[in-house]
Structure formats: C-alpha cells, structure tokens
Amino acid sequence: MQSKRQQIIDILKERGNATVETLSKELDISSVTVRHHLDVLRSEGLVNEPVVRRRATSGRPQHAYSLTLKAGELFPKSYDNLAAQLLDEVKARYDTREVNVLFEGMARRLLADAPHPVDGDTVEERFDRAVQFLNQKGYVARWEQNLGGVVIHTCNCPYEGLARKHPELCNMDFNLIASLTGFTPERVCHVTAGDGSCSYLIREDVFNL
Fold first, then answer.
1. Which domain holds residue 18?
2. I need a surface site. Which of 28, 69, 75, 117 has the fewest CB within 10 A?
3. Residue 19 phi, psi dihedral angles, 5° rounding
4. pTM of the model
5. Residue pLDDT, tens place only, 161-194
6. Does one domain contain both 165 and 85?
C-alpha cells in the first residue's frame, strides 16, 4: 500500500473520522489527491462511504470519512497472546480434570450449530457436510478417499500458535471430527509436529464406501 494511503488510514484510526480538508492539511497534499486515495481505499473496502457533517458556521456541509471493520485487520492484534495468558492462568488455577471439563464445554459450544450424522446418509454426504462446517470455522478442510479409508485434511489451524503449548486444543479438534462424522478418527498428520496439515484417517473397515 502506498505510504500516503497508509497515512490516511492511520489518521482515520486515530481520529475516528476526518474530512478531505483535514486530510489535505495533515498530509500537505491537494484535495484532489486526497479524494483519489480515498476512492481507492473505498474500492478496497477499507473506507466507508462518507457521512455528511454539518458545519458549526454557515457554509457547505463537509463529508467525513471513516474506516471499515475490514481496515481494522491492518493493525496489529494480540489475540493469541491474550488467549495464551488466559489458558496459562486457567491451568495454574485448576487441576487437569477441571481443565478438561472446560475444554469439553468449549467443544460443545463449537458444535452447537454443527450438522450431526443422520441415519441413511451416504458416507459422501456425511463427509461433505463435515468439511463444509469445518471450512465455515476457518479450517480450510477437504476430504479424500485413499486405500486405507477416508482422510480429512485440515490445512489451517485457527489456533496453531496456541496449540503448540496447549495440546488440549488438538484433542478438541479430534473430538470435533469424531462428532461431525460419527466415526472415531486416527490422526495421521499434525501441524505441531511440522506437517503441512492436521489429517485424520477413518479406516475403511469402519464403514462401506
């Protein structure tokens, strides 16, 4: 992103909103140039449509620009650090059994809107629905049939940085796969072990393809 556009984003983040006139003075560039940069940022979904702001004195109304929610993703976040500290605190305060109960509760919440296996479904329908749900949750999942059965690949771990220190999250994913498919899987690849994905094998002797 060009530096002037980044400066515009920074100013809007600091002030909440700003007019073309304000941005022009702050950046020492013409109003025409400011409008061009704003048009580009709007086309990229980073700046909202301008809101009319009445002047305190007489004169033409001004148009104030602000950032979209998408633009917020451009700024550093500390979600992983906060989550890691919370998990560390939980483990420091509770014993293993209580920690496991907490993670089981998290899994139930995650599964609250999940599709459940239905009698009469084909295996293909069951795996298609499971993968669709996983993709909605950011796992970048797919499944394939191989000689040993069916393998579900999750190519993105939504909490990879945390899972390396907190394997309970990996166990939660394992149980998630089991609940979605109705079959007990076997983890054959693991991102935290250096593999490109977490992959789960459901052996062919469990069902008939």
1. 3-74
2. 28
3. -90, 170
4. 0.66
5. 888 889 999 999 999 999 999 999 999 999 988 8
6. yes
